[in-house]
Queue: 4 jobs
Job 1
Amino acid sequence: MIVVSDTTPLISLLKRATGLDQGESEAIILTDEQNADVLLMDEAKGRTISFQMGFKIMGTIGILMAAYEEDELTADEVRKCVEGLQRAGRHISHKHYQMLLDKLND
């Protein structure tokens, strides 16, 4: 049987201390509680705080790169995903976008 501690006070404290929203705060606390290898988070502020707390983080571009490297997606499929995200209004930093394109062109 797995016993999960009540993380509500920690989540509330993290929200108040950092200004993160509920979901980001829960993700950080639960990642810590579960001793997870990586935290998946797109929000820049959440990634910054997570990094400061010592977490290895990955966002959408990292997930797409990993899927490409594992031959789960082709280069064209990754490009279409990114184009779809951009059309939907998702911000992708120029730095991360360029890293992805460089990887796809290798």
Job 2
Amino acid sequence: MILIYTHTITPRINYTIDLIFNTVLHCPYKITNDVVFFNESILPKIAYTQEKKGVEVFLKSDTLLFETDIKHKIPSSNEFYLNLPQFFSTNNNSFLPYDLFATVFYFATRYEEYLAHESDKHQRFQAEQGLSFKCQILNKPFLNILIQDFATKLKQQFPQLEFKQRSFNFLSTIDIDNAFAYANKGLKRNVAGLIKDLSSFKFKQIANRINSNINSNNDPYNTFEFINSLSEESKTALHYFVLIGDYSNYDKNPHYQNKGFRSLLKSLSLKYPMGLHPSYESYNHLEKISIEKQRLENIIEKKVTTARCHFLRINFPETYRTFIKAGITDDYTMIYASQSGFRSGLCVPYKWFDLQKNEGTNLTIHPSTVMEGTLRDYNKLLPTQATEYINELMQEVKNNGGEFVSIWHNDSFVAEQEEWIDVYKTMLKAPPNLPNREG
């Protein structure tokens, strides 16, 4: 066990130290503000405070973890450490030249997203406004890297310390935004679509629409048997997220009472975990999250405890508070739409901290790493370039014993997307073949 002294124990201190020592390093710890107890202890000791204590490991603290409000705080990044921008720099008296605890807290809680910023057209915080993107480290789980460096230095100082090595994990997730292109959409939507196709002379689509409504197995978006087979062949964990909200401009799945749609979801849920994909409209109407969750639970006859927001529309802290109230325990929304990588600087699941309430929660965040729509539609990468970038990101996660979470959509497995299907197949084959890097 390691003993950590700080002059004031705060919710932010408790959260950050638990994230570092429990979540990432799997090392038991104890926090104290009792100077006498600290001085008399024979345990390995760290002092996290303003003035240097007579211990081997003194970490000079910034004020961030002792504050209770949210200030306009953007740490400078003019200096570098481990070839990474150095945030919350300290001085030569400190064990580290920067405040690791403040750095971890700032990025893990998404502090900067609570500050005034310009949102995109979908009301999302833009990746390009984030510090990680501006500092060109979005493609690295830099918090994991810094924590592991800290652990290495602590081990040199205290050889008796033991840090459990995390194992790499890969999870393929599929968002079902549109289970069918034509089938199970109802008479009104199909007639409107047919008239539109006729007026545009889209005869192939007309034929597809008719065939799909005769037999939903012919629907081009009904790619689930193929997706499942790829998962089984590669022995890759698979997790579905289902959009089940009311119809709107950005919510276009079949009606939740449609028998064909319900049959599909029930069938998939028998073999694979299924989570909620809260609708686009639920961003501004949070009450819809519980309604949609109940709908899905009624269909699959199972409790739903996982979620990823449609369009990755997340509003801190309201969305996560609503998840907790609704019984969602695990979220997979932590990724940008326009850039792949590590939105929070972490590649391991960790607990969410409610910055406005200034308290920790039991909601687990699973950072997602890459989405096909980001690479293909936002970044305009060629399939070969996408494969190379995916491998780079996956290697970063593997180096840090993290969880690599990919996002694909069932409508990306249509015949016209053959090259991107190959990207997906290559990604599924990549994990076992990745060598461990030295260092």
Job 3
Amino acid sequence: MPTINETLLKLKESKFRAGFHLYEKERAYVADKGMNVVRAHAQDFIRTRLAPAYPPNDGKQTPMRGHPVFVAQHACACCCRGCLEKWYKVPQVRALSDVQQEKIMNLLMAWIAEETRNED
């Protein structure tokens, strides 16, 4: 099982995934709210929009912008069940376990932390 750092490196090899970055507004949101609040939002988004076996609007449930977690989900291929299956071999028709949800959240938060450290 790859580590978070190994997964982030693999994602950077994808031209599409590597094209996602936090804009100033999203970086400011993280700075203003703090990582604990952003983590709580990530947990809620994953639980409600990604974890069900048949999420509503699957494939279209994650906006491209508007919240740092949404951008992270696209950058990390955790935006829909199809991407989870393609990138991580997670079956689409089975609800995500608590452990799977936690791993996704940790990956998203690592990506956000990296993006907020690398301010240009």
Job 4
Amino acid sequence: MNQYYTYILASSKNWTLYIGVTSDLLKRVYEHKNWIYKWFSSKYWICNLVHFEVFSDIRDAIEREKRLKKWNRNWKLELIESNNPEWKDLYDELL
């Protein structure tokens, strides 16, 4: 069964956020952390995985990404802090 992820990266607590979707969370976060591509995240040093959600259907993951991108900043911060109050980099826990 395939899994798809909507994720949020942060540069540090309460700073710049990046929201994305992927079918390979470990690989995608690795790419962000190592500046494999010249994305928005490399410009702002966004490399800490602070939130992610798992979906079995790519359409649901994409829809969630779109909804999150429309949220105001406070809602996004509340979402992160409700599941990750210390803003830990969850990437290390996934390894």
